[in-house]
Specification:
Blueprint lengths: L1 E9 L3 H7 L4 H8 L11 H10 L5 E4 L4 H4 L2 H12 L3 E6 L4 H4 L18 H17 L7 E4 L6 H10 L3 E2 L23 E3 L2 E3 L4 E3 L5 E3 L7 H13 L4 E7 L13 H16 L3 E3 L21 H18 L3
Parallel strand pairs: 1-2, 1-10, 1-11, 2-3, 3-4, 4-5, 5-7
Antiparallel strand pairs: 6-7, 8-9
Helix pairs in contact: 7-8
């Protein structure tokens, strides 16, 4: 069977903290984690409700760096419900929070948008501190990592290996111009050993002119996601990684429900509940294994792309993104 890793980057907004002031932790939680809206919360609680309804599991990559500003309780409020409901907690890290950490900055005055902006020694310090914060908040010791903004480099992987974190999933083959500086390319789509760890690339499908489209809830229609999973299962692709966020079901301003993406997520859970050759997996109980060779992707088809473009246009007009 093809294992699907539904990964949810679960994070307070550093942007909101910088804009509204670091004192508004409650408001940040409401807009980034709980995702309160007029029709009810649509954050990780809602997402776990739908996952549980269909017997699915997800991997929540939780960023503990806000604990440098608000203390461990801010992260415990995120981790506790995930652990209690039997989902997987792994390590995420947005180094932007160092700009707000003051004397709690573990690398002194140094700051940067991405973990790759730091030396190998500093990356070891930052990841080690982030891991300690996550565990102090109630998470099991993490075995997997994803850099904020995908902004890792090969030194990040070396730091993970040094610290005993076996898996990284920061390489996104479909976005070669992203912040990721790991020395892998668009053809590196299968799980592989690299720089001392197991690299688990973000999934992709074929796009126009030989390009790729990343496997993210906001980037594809439900028909594309379902077709990609069926294609992977038919070709015995061992695993695929789907990206989402704790706030993914909200409008761009995080004030309203994005009904386009909400419907997409709800339908995805129902579809996964019916697929016989695809099952959800976690790093805690069923980690990915290296699979040498070029991983096949769903071929590009213009009808699917045109349907997506139409759906995205509606979502952008109504909600700012879809």
């Amino acid at each position: 069977m093809t294992r699907l890793y539904i990964t949810v980057d679960t994070e307070y907004s550093c942007g909101l903290a910088l804009r509204d002031g670091a004192g508004n932790r409650t408001g940040n939680f409401a807009r980034s984690i709980a995702c309160d809206t007029a029709i009810g919360p649509l954050g990780i609680g809602y997402q776990m409700d739908r996952l549980d309804q269909y017997g699915l599991k997800a991997v929540f990559f939780v960023d503990p760096m806000p604990a440098l500003v608000w203390g461990t309780a801010a992260i415990a409020d995120v981790v506790g419900p995930i652990v209690s409901r039997g989902h997987d907690v792994q390590l995420h890290l947005h180094s932007e929070w160092l700009a707000l950490a003051g004397s709690n900055n573990p690398v002194g005055p140094r700051t940067g948008r991405n973990i790759a902006d730091f030396s190998l020694d500093d990356q070891c310090v930052l990841i080690d501190r982030a891991r300690d914060l996550l565990v102090a908040a109630g998470a099991p010791r993490p075995v997997a990592f994803r850099a904020g903004n995908y902004g890792a480099n090969d030194d990040t992987l070396r730091a993970l290996a040094h610290l005993g974190i076996a898996y990284d999933t920061s390489h996104c083959p479909a976005i070669p111009g992203a912040d990721c500086a790991i020395s892998l390319g668009p053809d590196d789509r299968a799980v592989l050993a690299h720089c001392g760890v197991i690299e688990v690339p973000i999934g992709a499908i074929g796009a126009a002119n030989g390009a790729l489209r990343h496997f993210q809830l906001t980037a594809l229609t439900i028909s594309e996601i379902a077709a990609a999973l069926r294609h992977a299962a038919a070709r015995q692709v061992p695993s695929m990684t789907l990206v989402s966020h704790s706030f993914e079901l909200l409008s761009r301003d995080r004030m309203r429900a994005n009904q386009v993406v909400k419907r997409r997520f709800d339908t995805l859970c129902a579809v996964l509940g019916s697929l016989k050759d695809v099952r959800t997996a976690t790093y805690a109980s069923d980690p990915p294994e290296p699979a040498p060779g070029l991983q096949a992707v769903l071929p590009h088809r213009w009808p699917r792309t045109l349907r997506r473009m139409a759906e995205q246009a509606v979502g952008n007009a109504l909600y700012g993104s879809s």
